[in-house]
């Protein structure tokens, strides 16, 4: 448990306003000084009477009793309680009881953890463990929590240690079977797959932390076993036909509407011109563009080195900059803190959400209406980029790497577009008048 650093203890007691002869052990007067003289930093003061009992103080002066002890050569910590809820004399009595258990070879911290895990609900694990330890440090963590709360609501009050395969599959089956008033399915395949992926990641974390013995199933749950994610491909020019006049196609209408677009929000119309330009020129996702910063831009080498915390896959990848991408970058000269391309105060996730919502929910519909485009979303610029790459002669593995897909299987959904081009060319050749070579 270590020896008390007396010099450091004296310095701390003086800092919180203690004068005259200092007490050798914690007193109610010391505790009151701790609470009324916040230091703006986290620190601890040893009790001095019960070995291992310490008062851990937060930046604002809130304090908690903790007991430090050794079990089988390893350092352990056990929370006794918050100051105010647990008085000094009670904290000492509780700590002495714990030390007596340790002397008998028991491990109170492990026993408490097992008891808590046995009764902890899915919601409690999400709120008390998974969110503070994982989601708060993950890109889109708030969205992930919201997804779990919404899609797995029937299981939130179930003990996480007692989750079964049948319970999980019932939730998915019920959502899969639900229909809209028009008879179409309410929840799409891709949504069900993402919901399971988010929930499974939390269950895997619970297994790692000992709150769950094992994930209740080795493979996908039965209701989604053969489902495939979103296979939709939409690109500019897809709805043009042979009667479309030159200069009046989807791509041309989009380009004209984008050039004329205006906004009263920060950055004006240049914001959407930059985002759309980057999406069309690089295939980057909305969240990747919004989280760009100068430190990952390398204009001289014409590349962007996306870091894991930015990408959807949580894996680093390189994005190469064409002339069109460089032109889009030059269009946007706004900078926030730390060289971020999009400024804002407060929580970084909230700042990103403002710009993302503005791009997709607030301004994109107006742009598409002006361009007379149906069923075309910002994410479809990524599809358009992939289709243009394939049409230029790029291979599926090359397109996979450019888009940051985990496997070429995800990229294969674009292959039918090129196959359709070949088919149309052959049919067009058949309709033309053959040339007789003499």
List keywords for this structure.
8% strand, 7 strands, alpha+beta, 3-stranded antiparallel β-sheet, hpI Integrase, Chain A, 4-stranded antiparallel β-sheet, 438 residues
Report on the architecture of this protein:
- By secondary structure, the protein is of the alpha+beta class.
- It folds into 3 domains: 113 residues, Integrase, DNA-binding domain (Double Stranded RNA Binding Domain, 2-Layer Sandwich); 103 residues; 156 residues, hpI Integrase, Chain A (Orthogonal Bundle).
- The chain is built from 17 helices and 7 strands.
- The strands form 2 sheets. A 4-stranded antiparallel beta sheet has the order 1-2-3-4, covered by helices on one side. The protein has a 3-stranded antiparallel beta sheet with strand order 5-6-7.
- The protein starts with 5 loop residues before the first helix and ends in a 7-residue tail after the last helix.
- The model has no long low-confidence stretch (mean pLDDT 88).
């Amino acid at each position: 448990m270590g020896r008390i650093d007396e010099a450091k203890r004296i310095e701390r007691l003086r800092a919180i306003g203690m004068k005259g002869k200092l007490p050798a052990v914690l007193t109610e007067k010391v505790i009151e000084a701790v609470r009324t003289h916040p230091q703006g930093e986290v620190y601890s003061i040893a009790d001095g009477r019960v070995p291992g009992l310490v008062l851990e103080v937060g930046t604002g002066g809130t304090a908690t009793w903790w007991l430090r002890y050794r079990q089988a050569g390893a350092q352990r910590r056990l929370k006794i309680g918050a100051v105010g809820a647990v008085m000094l004399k009670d904290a000492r009595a509780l700590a002495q009881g714990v030390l007596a258990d340790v002397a008998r070879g028991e491990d109170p911290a492990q026993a408490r953890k097992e008891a808590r895990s046995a009764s902890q609900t899915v919601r409690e694990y999400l709120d008390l463990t998974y969110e503070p330890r994982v989601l708060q440090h993950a890109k889109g963590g708030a969205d992930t929590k919201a997804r779990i709360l919404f899609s797995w609501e029937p299981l939130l009050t179930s003990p996480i240690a007692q989750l079964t395969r049948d319970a999980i599959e019932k939730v998915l089956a019920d959502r899969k079977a639900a229909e809209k008033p028009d008879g179409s399915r309410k929840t799409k395949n891709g949504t069900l797959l993402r919901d399971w992926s988010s929930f499974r990641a939390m269950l895997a974390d619970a297994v790692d932390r000992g709150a769950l013995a094992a994930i209740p199933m080795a493979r996908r749950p039965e209701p989604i076993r053969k489902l495939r994610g979103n296979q939709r491909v939409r690109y500019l020019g897809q709805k043009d036909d042979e009667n479309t006049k030159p200069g009046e196609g989807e791509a041309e209408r989009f380009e004209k509407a984008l050039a004329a677009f205006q906004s009263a929000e920060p950055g004006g119309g240049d914001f959407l011109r930059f985002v759309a330009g980057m999406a069309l020129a690089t295939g980057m996702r909305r969240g990747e563009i919004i989280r760009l910063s100068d430190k990952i831009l390398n204009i001289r080498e014409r590349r962007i080195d996306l870091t894991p915390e930015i990408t959807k896959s949580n894996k680093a990848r390189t994005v190469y900059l064409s002339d069109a991408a460089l032109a889009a970058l030059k269009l946007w000269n706004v900078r926030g803190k730390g060289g971020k391309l999009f400024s804002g105060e407060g929580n970084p996730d909230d700042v990103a959400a403002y710009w993302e919502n503005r791009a997709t929910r607030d301004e994109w519909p107006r742009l598409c209406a002006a361009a007379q485009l149906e069923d075309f979303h910002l994410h479809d610029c990524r599809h358009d980029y992939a289709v243009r790459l394939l049409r230029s002669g790029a291979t599926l593995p090359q397109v996979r790497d450019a888009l940051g897909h985990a496997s070429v299987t995800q990229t294969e959904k674009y292959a039918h577009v090129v196959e359709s081009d070949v088919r149309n060319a052959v049919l067009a050749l058949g309709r033309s008048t053959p040339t007789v070579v003499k």
